[in-house]
Write a structure and sequence with these properties.
Blueprint lengths: L2 H25 L11 E3 L5 E4 L1 H5 L8 H4 L26 H16 L6 H4 E2 L1
Antiparallel strand pairs: 1-2, 2-3
Length: about 120
């Protein structure tokens, strides 16, 4: 077999493997977790990457759903987005103020977690 033919066979095998890999990746996606692992809160003061799993896992802080999601009536129901009630122009507490009260208050009370702006906000 000459060098040109060997290259052609190698390229053909490479292309076939790439196509098989892409098809398998698309056909068998990972299942979405029931609860988010991390949540990115986007805002003008710098985005906040919230580690939901660490806060809710027994090996982590072990908080229950209703500890943060105050509108839930049952722990197994899905919470609504905070911005649905906590809008900038509504009579409710603004979303940023609600987060600051909830998060900073918990961090202050427990003595764990950051309380400075740069501890949460990525500038």
């Amino acid at each position: 077999m000459d060098a040109g033919r060997e290259k052609l066979v190698a390229y053909a095998i490479g292309i076939i493997l790439i196509v098989v890999g892409v098809v398998c990746y698309a056909a068998f996606p990972d299942r979405m977790p029931e609860q988010p692992v991390r949540i990115m809160f986007k805002n003008t003061a710098g985005n906040v990457l919230f580690d939901h799993k660490m806060h809710t896992a027994e090996e982590g802080y072990g908080y229950g759903c209703m500890d943060c999601h105050h509108t839930l009536e049952q722990a197994d129901e899905r919470p609504s987005a905070c911005g649905e009630c906590h809008e900038p122009d509504s009579d409710e507490v603004k979303r940023s103020d609600a987060f600051h009260q909830q998060c900073q208050g918990c961090h202050d009370d427990s003595g764990m977690g950051p309380v400075e702006c740069a501890g949460c906000h990525v500038l």
